[in-house]
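Morning F.,

Quick status update on the modeling queue. The single chain you submitted on Monday has been processed. Sequence for confirmation:
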Amino acid sequence: MERIRQIIHLDLDAFFCSVEELRDTSLVGKPFAVGGRPNERGVVASCSYAARRYGIHSAMPMSQALRLCPQLIIISSRHGNYEDASQKVMAILRELTPQVEQISIDEAFLDASDIPEKADIIAKRLQTRIKQETGLSCSIGVATSKLVAKIATDVGKKAKGGSGPPFAMTVVPPGSETEFLAPLPADFLWGVGPKTAARLAEMGIQTIGDIVSFPEYELIASFGKNGKEMIRHARGIDRSPIVTSYPAKSYSQEITFARDVKSDSELHKTLQELSRRVSSRLQDDNLSGMTIKLKLRWPNFTTITRQTTLNQMTDDAQTIANMAKQLFEKVWKPGKAVRLLGVGISSLAPSVHQLTIWDVEDPQSQRLEDAINELQHRFGEGIISKGLPAQNPDINLSDSKLKSP
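C-alpha cells below.
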C-alpha cells in the first residue's frame, strides 16, 4: 500500500516587514514599506499590513505607493538581517526533518511523511515554535502534495484578512483535494498565469472545478502540454518530490567589447541579452536564483561588482534584466565608456513550476519558443534571438563566476 504523503508548506507572513518590526517596535501598526527610494525608481519589496489597507502591494513602484499613502514610511532593505532571520527559521525546520525544500528566503516545503504524528499536529507545533523562538509569524498549508499545500497556505492567508499577520493554518485531508480546489479561481493553479486565465475565461472556465468538468480534449487542443498539466493539477494530482540538494553554483554571462561602449541603448540591450542567456541556462537546468549580480569593467581595467537579493526565486529573463539594469544605473554615468559587462545569478534552488506574465502560454508560441531553443542548442545562441540585434562578431562571449563585492 502506497504511503499517504504529509506535505507542509510554510510561508513567513510579510517577512521583511516582520523583521523590521522586531528591530524597531515603533513600526508596529504603522503603514511602512521595505524597498527602494521613489526618486531612484525603487519598488516595494514588502509592505506592512497597515500599508496594504491603502492598496499598496509588493512590486509596486514606490512613487505610486507614496501617492496612495503620503504618510508611508520607507525602509531601505537590510538583506543581511533578512538572511539571518531566514536561516534561523530554516534551521528549526531541518531539526524536525531533513526533508526540507527552501524555495525562497521566506518560504519552504517539508515532507513529514516519515514522522508518526499527524501533519496538522506537527504543523501547529512548528508554527508555535517559530513564533516563540524568532518572533516571526508564519502561515502553513498541509496536504498530500506540494501543489495543494501551497494553495492551502494562500487560501488560509486570504481568509484571515484583518490588519495583522494572518498566522493561518489550513489543512486539506487526504482524498478531499478535488473538493477543496473546485471553488477556487482558476489562476490559483500553478501554470495559470494572467494570459492563460483570460483564455480560460473566454472558454467559460472561471474556477478550478470548471477545469475538471471541461472536456479534456478541448483543453489539450488549446493549451498542449500545459493543458495536460492543468488537468492533473485541477484534480489535485502533484507527485513532485521534495528536493533537498542542488548544485551550489552560480550562473553568469559576460561580454568584453572589442571597442569600449558609451551608448546607453547598446549597453542596455547588452544587459537584456546577457540576462536572457542566464535565464536560458537556468531553465535548461530547472533552477531559479535569488541574488542578481552585475559585473562592470572600465577602460582602465578597474572592475566593480554589485548585487541585490530578490524576495523570491526567479528564472525569468525580464526580472533578471530589470534588476541588472537597476544595479547598472546606480554606478554608470551617461557617456562613460564600458569595457566589459556581466550578469549573474546565485542562491540557486530547483524551480517551482508556475508561469508568469512573461511566459509563453499558447501552443503556437510554445512551438516557436521550442524551435528557437533547438536552433540555439544546435548552432549557438547567437544564431537567433527575440527582438534583439544579431551578436556583434567583435564581441567576446564567455561564462564566468562573478565574485561578490
